[in-house]
Design goal:
The structure holds two protein chains of two kinds. By secondary structure, chain A is mainly alpha-helical. Helices cover 75% and strands 0% of the residues of chain A. Chain A has 14 helices and no strands. Chain A is globular, with a radius of gyration of 24 Å. Chain B has one domain (3-92, 174-328): Rossmann fold, CATH 3.40.50. In chain B, helix 8 (188-205) links the parallel strand 7 and strand 8 (208-213). Classes of the chains: A mainly alpha, B alpha/beta. Chain B: One of its GO terms (cellular component) is plasma membrane.
Chain lengths: 334, 329
């Protein structure tokens, strides 16, 4: 097992190498450069050339890339061309917002998705099954920005129950520790701010969680239907176990493997930043951060962020693969 | 002798796409305490559905027990609530299945699956339950029982898994054990071991057993009495010696003729011509009529009753005359 983990971690090296290379090439091949963004279109050519030289943009591409790699190996992602802040430092403020949103979205998606999938499978073809699967189909098909707007309209505008945007109301401020507001407010012992942060989190988490929730519900249902037909389920019933035990213990654990795969993948996707959701809810997350960096051709930010996100994505998948062995003893890695 | 189980006119039908499939249609038999009863018949004859009906584990929908009585220890199981039935399953009546490879849950240890039986039915402490489990595994011939408790099913061979299933089924010393083709999926040598083990445990515990099989060799080896089924109906019910020495129903005769014997010099086996009928579309009269070599006109029209002869019960018009004579004298 340790061998396996070490091998998987070693595999990270070529993966990250490939990703940094691709990102680097793509961002340099799209037309436009940061100089135009910084100086505006009407800047004098002399001034532009000077700045280009300053930023090292006149070096050949391979040289720029090697420089980036060299810095990366020293744990340095460079500075933003636009803000002159360290990329790592900026990520440390934007990324936790995305993490918090993702965790909340995946929590809703997993709990509701699995529950709906289990009930739908146990009561196959019932009204609940039909209704929840129709809901799941709608969920995966709906554009997130539209769903987000509708949620804001209903819960913020019409009902006024929840705030429409941002992470915290302006009247609250809490010292930054983790930049996960739910945790920071608790650490500060500020209960009112905690409730405020939670209220701000609900709508974007719902919007973002809808697609994973739908996929998880459908996957859980089909996996459960498959498992409920198995002989060992009949054995469990023949032992005199109650239905709850049969379904929640004997069936669900077996049915969980494909669901876990989906949860892991979705988790990774969401951590990459949800531009739509973050834009609609003015959520200062990494998705919007990268989007703005791409628009400004802020090369170090784009490269640095994507490298970090890729790293996390691969690590999450490794964790999922390890969790397989916890759930199914037949899976063993050499 | 005390009757532990009496099944009377049991009817279990399946409903799929508007069609009624009479998987079990009027099965009647009884089982004495300590007796081993064989139920034989080919695939689709309703053996397994009969046993699942007794456990009330027929998948529903599409299946439904539509009639009859199942009297177990003086109580009609069909009248019990699901909750009362759960107390019977695993404790009073337990079951082992055909395929030990798939009958154990792959993601739980043997210990977890064995102890569950004690946990659900008896309020045993974990330590006591564990001790009992080890004792059981030793009894069914699993070496290093203590160590093997921590193993998962995939770490056992087929024969060993069936031993675990038997241990699980006998854990609470049930009055009745239903074994649904317990050796079909196993190698011949392992089959013999498992049958020997079941016989030995049956003697020790005095458990009554219903042995469902399509292997007449197993019946001859194990059973006291035999019920032969065809197309969801009972056709002949007799003492094992009587049945093998003097089969009367044409289907039973056909079955016995189709087994190879060591002391015979036949070139070919004698099969029963034709194939079993479609249960959704049974002939009006006797279900075996299209394949029967003794058929009469009445057979295609009238369903034969399952009636009592001096030495057996039988459903065949051939013996109607005998029945009438017996009634007249």
């Amino acid at each position: 097992m340790v061998n396996y983990i070490v091998r998987r971690l070693l595999q990270l090296i070529p993966v990250l190498f490939g990703i940094t290379f691709l990102t680097f090439m793509l961002i340099h091949f799209i037309p436009g450069d940061p100089v135009t963004v910084i100086l505006g279109e009407h800047a004098s050519p002399e001034r532009a050339a000077e700045l280009r030289e300053q930023l090292g943009l006149n070096d050949p591409l391979y040289k720029q890339y090697l420089k980036f790699l060299n810095n990366l190996l020293h744990g340095d992602l460079g500075r933003s061309i636009i803000t002159h802040e360290k990329v790592l430092k900026e990520l440390a403020t934007f990324f936790p917002a995305t993490v918090e949103l993702t965790l909340a979205a995946m929590f809703i998606a997993t709990v509701v998705g699995i529950a709906a999938g289990v009930v739908a499978a146990v009561k196959q073809y019932s009204w609940f099954d039909n209704l929840s699967m129709l809901g799941a189909l709608t969920g995966v098909s709906m554009p997130i920005f539209w769903l987000g707007l509708m949620l804001i309209y209903l819960f913020a505008q019409v009902l006024g129950w929840l705030p429409p945007s941002a992470r915290l109301s302006i009247e609250y401020s809490v010292p930054t520790v983790t930049n996960l507001y739910l945790i920071d407010t608790l650490l500060a012992g500020n209960w009112a701010a905690f409730k405020d942060a939670l209220a701000h989190l609900i709508l974007p988490a719902l919007a973002l969680g809808t697609i994973p929730m739908s996929i998880i519900a459908r996957m859980t249902r089909s996996s459960m239907l498959e498992v409920l037909r198995q002989d060992y389920i009949r054995t469990a019933r023949a032992k005199g176990l109650g239905e709850a035990m049969v379904i929640l213990k004997h069936a669900l654990k077996n049915a969980f493997l494909p669901v876990l795969t989906v949860i892991g993948l979705q988790f990774g996707y969401l951590l990459g930043g949800a531009v739509m959701t973050e834009t609609v809810f003015s959520w200062p997350g990494v998705g919007r951060y990268i989007y703005q960096a791409i628009m400004a051709r802020d090369f170090p930010v784009v490269q640095g962020s994507i490298t970090i996100i890729a790293l996390i994505f691969v690590l999450i998948n490794l964790i999922v693969d390890i969790l397989y062995t916890v759930i199914d003893p037949r899976i063993r890695y050499q | 002798m005390e009757k532990i189980l009496e099944v009377k006119d049991l009817k279990t039908y399946f409903y799929s796409s508007g069609k009624e499939i009479r998987a079990v249609d009027g099965v009647t038999f009884s089982l004495n305490r300590g007796e081993i009863l064989g139920i034989v018949g080919e695939s689709g004859s309703g053996k397994s559905v009969t046993s699942l009906s007794i456990m009330r584990l027929v998948p529903s929908p599409p299946g439904k027990i539509v009639g009859g009585e199942i009297i177990f220890a003086g109580e009609d199981l069909l009248k019990l609530s699901e909750k009362e039935m759960r107390k019977i399953r695993g404790e009073k009546i337990s079951m082992i299945f055909q395929d030990p490879m798939t009958s154990l849950n792959p993601v739980f240890t043997i210990e977890e699956q064995l102890l569950e039986v004690f946990r659900v039915h008896k309020k045993l402490s974990k330590k006591d339950a564990r001790e009992k489990a080890i004792e059981l595994l030793k009894k069914v011939g699993i070496p290093e029982a203590e160590k093997r408790l921590k193993s998962y099913p995939h770490q056992f061979s087929g024969g060993m898994r069936q031993r675990v299933m038997i241990a699980m089924a006998l854990a609470l010393n049930p009055a009745l054990l239903i074994a649904d083709e317990p050796t079909t999926a196993l190698d011949v040598t392992i089959q013999a071991q498992i049958l020997a083990l079941m016989k030995e445990l049956q003697k020790e515990y005095g458990t009554s057993i219903i042995m469902i099989t399509h292997d007449l060799g197993v019946v001859a080896e194990m059973c006291h009495r035999v019920l032969v089924m065809y197309a969801g109906r009972p056709v002949e019910f007799a003492d094992v010696k009587t049945l093998f020495a003097n089969p009367k129903h044409p289907y039973t005769i056909g079955l016995l003729n189709s087994i190879p014997r060591l002391n015979e010099q036949k070139k070919r086996l004698t099969p029963i011509e034709g194939s079993p009928p479609d249960l959704g579309n049974l002939p009006r009269g006797c279900a075996f009529y299209p394949r029967c070599s003794f058929k009469q006109e009445v057979c295609s029209e009238v369903k034969p009753d399952f009636r009592e002869l001096p030495d057996r019960k039988i459903a065949c018009h051939l013996y109607q005359g005998v029945l009438d004579d017996a009634a007249a004298s």
